[in-house]
Design the sequence.
């Protein structure tokens, strides 16, 4: 049975900013002639790895809402820059926008069941324009939009 992960995306205000950051990261890896793949490094290896690799995704919380997800491609042992052993969660570079789902702050990552995961809306494109943050927040609060 498939399971997902949910994680806070700290330091990013919008999905477009997150996409731009990941695109730049892939370019940096290519210029450095390193393995060009998006990885999120975590100290703890997910114990439910088989379920996660069975179609699971990493759902990102941006400014208090799950707004986007990426499919998990692989879990592999890795080493952080300081030499600490960790787990690399290899992610599909395609970002899929989801219906906004409120989430309180937490540390690390959490499991997310398929039934609790927000539904997909569309693939995020590089040229998507963002609505002003204040307007989006006001419309979301009024329940006029979901993302």
Sequence:
């Amino acid at each position: 049975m498939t399971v997902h992960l949910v994680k806070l995306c700290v330091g990013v205000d919008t999905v477009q900013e997150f996409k731009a950051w990941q695109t730049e990261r892939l370019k940096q890896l290519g210029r450095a002639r390193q393995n060009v793949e998006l990885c999120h490094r975590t100290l703890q290896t997910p114990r439910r790895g088989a379920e996660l690799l069975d179609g699971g995704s990493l759902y990102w919380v941006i400014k208090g809402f799950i707004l986007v997800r990426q499919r998990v491609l692989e879990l592999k042992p890795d080493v952080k820059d300081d030499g600490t052993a960790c787990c690399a969660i290899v992610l599909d570079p395609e970002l899929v926008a989801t219906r906004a789902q409120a989430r309180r702050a937490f540390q690390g990552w959490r499991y997310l069941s398929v039934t609790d995961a927000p539904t997909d809306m569309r693939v995020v494109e590089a040229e998507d324009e963002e609505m002003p943050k204040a307007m989006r927040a006001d419309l979301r609060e009024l329940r006029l939009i979901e993302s």
